[in-house]
Design a protein that fits this description.
CATH superfamily of the largest domain: Response regulator
CATH topology of the largest domain: Rossmann fold
Shape: elongated
Number of helices: 12
Largest sheet: 6 strands, parallel
Strand order of the largest sheet: 2-1-3-4-5-11
Helix content: 40-55%
Number of strands: 12
Distance between the termini: 63 Å
CATH class of the largest domain: Alpha Beta
Number of domains: 3
Order of helices and strands: HHHHEHEHEHEEHEHEHEHEEHEE
Structural class: alpha/beta
Radius of gyration: 26 Å
CATH architecture of the largest domain: 3-Layer(aba) Sandwich
């Protein structure tokens, strides 16, 4: 049987005072309204005994703010987004804000639905790593006037963004191989071509054109056996270097290379755009570009809170710098 939630009226009846008096005391205004210390203590003790929990939304309605930020991410199981969520939550907590996190699984329809739900919960602002491009988001963004900051995945220069320059960072990586690639395979997960990967591909292609390196885009299948076949064909066609566009397919690629008797660091070289803590412990350790995830989270929070406070116009493009962690695979 469901237990009825304790209300201000319940406490008022138990103590023998008005509901307003209880509200003043529990909102820290007892002294302001000349309520005796003894009476305040009785009300506070009674509220504790009756396990009173303040109504968050009623309090927010009175104050005109919820002190809550919505966070929309595409895949919380990805270590990148798990770390980003942690950074954002810690920074918001330090500033007296709570966080609602929703996960879209890179489903553009689900994303629109979840964003609308966050609006309905009256969040004060939002940080979004979008699945959709700006064209599909424009309609829903017009439904609200709250500050929105985009993180990791940019949408439009007119919107606030915190992340990295994927084009330039990927372009620079091509020159980091210990030996100029004979042929370069640019690897990404099948059916995951989002805007960040598109920019990384463009950057890699620009560098390959400048350095006269043959390049091929490869969507690695989910099936390990099919992935083995794809990598075997690449090796047979003299591909000796691999740029992986994010960390989610690195282990599958390594398994495929080993299955085809190819040794990373010897007859094949590998660099991953995203780092992962596991890369240090495989053999050979994986060279990877480390994105400043904690810094991206902090800067995104700073920007959304600044816009809440000062009503700043959007359009701030905050690009952070990555760091190449050189191990042995490149």
């Amino acid at each position: 049987m469901k237990t009825k939630r304790t209300s201000l009226e319940d406490i008022a009846k138990a103590v023998g005072v008005s509901k307003a008096t209880v509200s003043f005391v529990l909102n820290g205004k007892g002294d302001q309204f000349n309520i005796s210390k003894a009476k305040q203590k009785i009300i506070q003790d009674t509220a504790k005994e009756m396990q009173y929990v303040p109504n968050f939304f009623a309090k927010s309605l009175r104050q005109g703010e919820t002190k809550t930020i919505g966070l929309v991410v595409s895949d919380i199981s990805n270590s990148f987004y798990a770390e980003l969520c942690k950074s954002i939550q810690e920074q918001l907590h330090a500033n007296g804000y709570n966080l609602f996190i929703v996960n879209t699984n890179d489903d553009d329809k689900l994303e629109l639905s979840l964003i609308r739900e966050l609006f309905q919960r009256s969040v004060d602002g939002m940080i979004v790593s979008p699945s959709n491009k700006i064209e599909k988001l424009e309609t829903i963004l017009k439904e609200t006037k709250i500050p929105i900051v985009f993180a990791d995945r940019p949408v439009d220069p007119s919107m606030d963004f915190v992340g990295v320059d994927n084009f330039t960072e990927a372009k620079n990586l091509i020159g980091k191989f210990s030996k100029k690639p004979n042929k370069l395979a640019v690897i990404f997960k099948a059916n995951s071509l989002v805007v960040t990967l598109e920019d990384r591909i463009k950057g890699a292609r620009a560098a390959c054109d400048e350095l006269n390196i043959p390049m091929e885009l490869v969507q690695l299948p989910d099936s390990q056996s099919k992935a083995n076949t794809v990598i075997k064909e690449l090796l047979n066609n003299q591909f000796d270097s691999f740029l992986v566009l994010n960390n989610v397919v690195v282990m599958k690629l390594l398994a495929s290379l080993r299955n085809n008797k190819s040794e990373i660091g010897k007859n094949a070289r590998l660099i991953c755009f995203d780092d992962d803590e596991a890369f240090e412990f495989v053999e050979p350790p994986i060279t990877a570009l480390r994105q400043p995830i904690k810094e991206i989270g902090k800067q995104a929070v700073d920007r959304v809170l600044a816009r809440i406070k000062d009503h700043l116009e959007p359009g701030n493009q905050n690009l952070r710098t990555c760091k190449l962690i050189e191990r042995k695979s490149h």
